[in-house]
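Crash report, auto-generated. Payload:
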Amino acid sequence: MLAPITHILPISSIQRERLLPQPGRVVVRKGQKVNPPDVVAEVNLTPEHLLLDIARGLGVSHEKADRFLQCKEGEQLSEGDIVAGPVGVARRVVRAPHGGRVVLAGSGQVLLEVESRPFELKAGISGVVIELIEDRGVIIETNGALIQGVWGNGRIDYGLLTILARSADDPLTADRLDVSFRGSVVLGGYCADPEVITAGNDLPLRGMILASMDSALVGVALKAKYPIILTEGLGKLPMNSAAYKLLSTNGRRETSLIADAWDRLAGTRPEIIIPLPAASELQPPHEADTFKAGQQVRVIRAPYKSQTGILLGVYPGLAALPNGLRTRAAEIRLESGETPLIPLANLEVLE
Amino acid sequence: MTTSLIDADSLLAIDVGSVNTRAMLFDIVDGRYRFVAVGSSPTTAGLPYRDIGEGVHRALERLQDVTGRILLGSDARLITPSQGGGGVDACVATFSAGKPMRVVAVGLLENVSAESAQNLMNTTYAQVVETLSLNDRRKQSSRIDAILRSRPDLIIVAGGTEGGASHSVMNLIEAIGLACYLFPQEARPEVLFAGNQALAGEAKASLESIASLHMAPNIRPTLDQEQLEPAGAELAQIFRSVCARQISGVQELDMWTGGHLTPTATAFGRMARFLQKAWQKTVLAVDLGASATTVAAATSNDLTLGVYPRLGLGESLAGLLSLCSVEEINRWLAVDIPETAIRNYLYNKAIYPASLPATAEDLQLEQALGRQLLYLAVRKTLSGKASTQSPAWAAGILSGFDRIIGAGSALTNTTSLGQSLLMMLDGLQPVRLCRMYLDQNNLLAALGAAAARNPTLAVQASESGILLHLGTVVSPFGDAPYGTPCLRVKITYESGDTASMDIKYGSLEVIPLPMGQRAAIHLLPLHDFDIGAGGPGKSGKIPDTFGGALGGIIIDARGRPLRLPADPARRRELHKKWLSALGG
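Recovered output after restart:
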């Protein structure tokens, strides 16, 4: 059976697509070195248009109006520029009410795209642009540690990693966020207090990595000005030991948080990337696998949620679960030493 | 590749769902079509594969392992027609993976044609993200911006009754045309014109050169008439092309089926209609899926299809609490689970939609969610048709269905048939008399896809036991203090033995009748209760009733709508008692 993979890697070659949500303009070149805040592509996601009725403005018929047009499609106009006219003894004209680009002109009308701030797609990580994807974005390559999360609040930033979690499920409280953490990315365990999130806004933080948080905090986390990534999920869940060990030993390093929502179809997932120098040429990690003995796996659902272990073998046929359901399952040796049967649907390979 | 099903023997049905891809084989056994086996694999529409082909091939390989029949050639293509015991003669496919289509609904009046556009979108995997009508008073440029910002896959124009206003509709069409022009070529939405036919020519002239335009008959020809079915066929085609554009492998699968890849919900609805005709009985079929909950209500002259992507058991669960409260989910639980845990569960299941409940508590929660999703989806479907159908529907009472079929893994993947039936009874709450079935291998949509081209297969396969008859359910309708006798039942077995009992209001009972055995049942409602025999208090006889898999006639006298005790302990006790009555 096909196995989903979550990457928790101390060092690897990492290639990441950074794509605009709709076609736009790529503003970097192949081979260019980029840093997390650099803009790699842009698009106007919230366009604003004005439809100018030239005929009415000039007081002539739609057929005649086109003769008085003073602009062409594609032309950039500034506020107050003459769009059409003059007409008659009063020399009536139609002027651009705002600066913008003429996208259509004809039949007595002009459609003006008003200047507005485009959406800027940031690089998110330090690396080199290895491929340009026409009108959509880039592929950036870097070397470093990679930890994939399960939930993100949609923001991107980077900063020095500060370890606040004393254990994998250490509760993070607002009183532990003091001014010395301003501009850093903090690693916490579990969070149930909305004030922690708001305190992060006030400092401000550049990012927050948590094992888990209470679902009541989702609303406030989505509004946070900095990226928040959960490695396990919602509820009180300890961070899996592989991720905790890796993150807690990388304090004071530059850490990028791409807290995209996990969207399997769009190909986005919340990720923590810590750029590191590589002694030799590295290969990108496997993205596809099937379940087999010897793999390190993580349990993604109760019981044993967030625990890691080694897959001892896939059970032949269907196995009966304690609740009576029958499904394909595997025997796992958990870190606790237990060897339960876990449904394959509730496992993912850690690689 | 052969695509004709005429004289075909074996048929492969492939269903690509948002979580699983299944390959189902039907073949002739002893001169009749039978379901042979199923192979399944995780769907591979997303990363790392980004091509549904991998999941399809894996499911086919699994089917090969199960049946020993070679289906894939050395070139990894489907062997068709069958040769030397391998391959298949025909292939059909259904599809529900991917995100719901983003739709801009354009209608002249918000509560007339725009509403009909919304109703049409409810028949497929779609989400209306913007509505344009004359009521909204936005300037033309604001309308253009609204379309551009909503980035639709489809714009449906349903403006104007036949012979009605034309200038206003053309204004809206102008906004659509300008917006389409401004989209980059590869991001231009499909446009479906299903409005005033007098404007079809002008709409075509305005839009044809800048958008992929589809034409369909008016979905709202008069103020009080709505006809969705002809446009529905066009919608299926649009869904196919939108999916093919967004997800790799869809086009190839469509080719395997000769261009007849069908939205799963459409095929599911078609099969409900088909069974209605075959049985000459009204049919309600519900499918609790990860991508959506689908409701198909087939009566003699109509099919009402409701597809609700926001009511799926997968990724959409994170948004369920915007449609109902935690208490409404909690009310279905027989165990005490804190509301915080329920909320966390919804988010975690949305993160891992393919995961399975492995503890008794998780299974209870999953089934409580199933009940609530059924409850919401059925009431949404019925309320949409309330004005044109039945006053009972308007009151949220599910009446008038002779046969009710449940499908979807939440209903079929239970540890007892009693659990499946109780989920359906709690979520749907049918009244009076009906037979309940379980689509135990989730084949209904596959048969619906096959039915369009090979009705014999659909008939014979559906008669071969794929629909498990759970039992006949009698739900007397009325009101009385709990504990009051509301129905007297007399059952006469084939042996001539008889039994009689009074049913108390508020109870759920099973009168023993072993599976397959027949009995005559006489029902005498008490205290003006109604069993559908011509009015309150009227008695009725079911001369030839079969025992179902639950081993009896189920009398659900718990009342409609089902009123659960406010006291959590008492409520949980009742849930346990009711499940125990159905065999645990």
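Post-recovery validation: The longest strand of chain B covers residues 32-42.
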